Amino acid sequence: MDITVNILLTIATAATPLLIAAIGELVVERSGVLNLGVEGMMIMGAVGGFGATYLTGSPWIGLLAAIAMGAVFSLLFAVMTLSLATNQVATGLSLTLLGLGLSGMMGTRFVGQPGERLPNLYIPGLTEIPVVGRLLFGQDPIFYISIALTAAVMWFLFKTRTGLTLRSIGDSHTSAHALGIKVIRYRYLAVIFGGACAGLAGGHLSLVYTPQWVENMSAGRGWIALALVVFASWRPWRVLAGAYIFGAVWIGQLHAQAFGIPVPSQFLSSLPYLATVVVLVLISRNKRLTMMNTPASLGQPFVPDR
Predict the structure, then answer these.
(1) In angstroms, rounded to a whole number, what is the distance separating the alpha carbons of residues 199 and 39?
(2) What is the DSSP annotation of 51-115?
(3) Residue 167 in contact with residue 14, Cβ under 8 Å?
(4) Interatomic CA distance for residues 251 and 90, integer angstroms
(5) Spatial contact of 115 and 60, defined as CB atoms under 8 Å apart
(6) Closest CA to 80 of 39, 33, 47
(7) Rounded Cα–Cα distance for residues 76 and 88 (Å)
(8) CATH of 2-113+125-293 among 1.10.1790, 1.10.10, 2.30.30, 1.10.3470
(9) What is the pLDDT along the chain (306 residues), one digit of tens a residue?
(10) How do the domains of the chain map onto residue ranges?
(11) How far apart are CA 106 and CA 289, in angstroms?
(12) Which pTM does this prediction carry?
């Protein structure tokens, strides 16, 4: 039973950064913007969070620094794509490369340094409950933030007028502009929110998942988060389910290697990325489902009339 609980805990820990980054990107894409810089924003959040924690001794300050780092990086993306109308795909890829290189340079002094982990929640009497106690009342704070964030985004998008406005911009920014909606303003806010989520996801990697700094420690999770949004058909609750499925695959291959299953370790390590490719292939076969939920203005530049 203890082994099962530990595996479930590690799955939740592995799924949390995927969920947070994907939820942020879902809001961005619902506004009609395609941000392929999630990986770069995650790794910048990771180095910013670890660096601030190392310098101040407080993982909470590190967490805020991770969020700020992701938000600042996303603001750069927003200025280039929304104000200067650059190509969103090329800009996102460029920022990912910039984030990977810049984080490596910034993190040089932190390599091999001990990190400080965010403490897990502990509620006397509840955390000690067999099986469910540690799963429900003994997780790290970012786990609870990820669940609350998913519920909040679901409520915001489908139960509020502002959420309806954001979705209308993603479906037709021209029509929204004709109705007097400030398209660029909404998209700026959406992009910054997505960047803050990506930074928080990166902070989780360096403050919870592996409390240390390792170059390129995001390991492609930003790309998996992008695939999760498509996998979920731009629905928050499906993002939640998909994140835990991918988290289970990620942890499953680690345990398979630990148990000595006679399969090449290189193949097991590639399983999360192979699962991503397989899922995208299966989704692409159902074009009706994909087209029905895809924001019609996704990736299209918008330049308001002057």
Answers:
(1) 10
(2) HHHHHHS-HHHHHHHHHHHHHHHHHHHHIIIIIS---HHHHHHHHHHHHHHHHHHHTGGGBT---
(3) no
(4) 32
(5) no
(6) 33
(7) 12
(8) 1.10.3470
(9) 577 888 888 899 999 999 999 999 999 999 999 999 999 999 999 999 999 999 999 999 999 999 999 999 999 999 999 999 999 999 999 999 999 999 999 999 898 888 888 988 888 888 888 878 888 888 999 999 999 999 999 999 999 999 999 999 999 999 999 999 999 999 999 999 999 999 999 999 999 998 999 998 998 899 999 989 988 889 999 899 989 988 888 888 777 766 667 777 677 677 777 877 787 777 767 666 666 678 989 988 898 864
(10) 2-113+125-293
(11) 43
(12) 0.92
And the tokens for 93? 């890829």
Q: What tokens were used for 37?
A: 């810089």
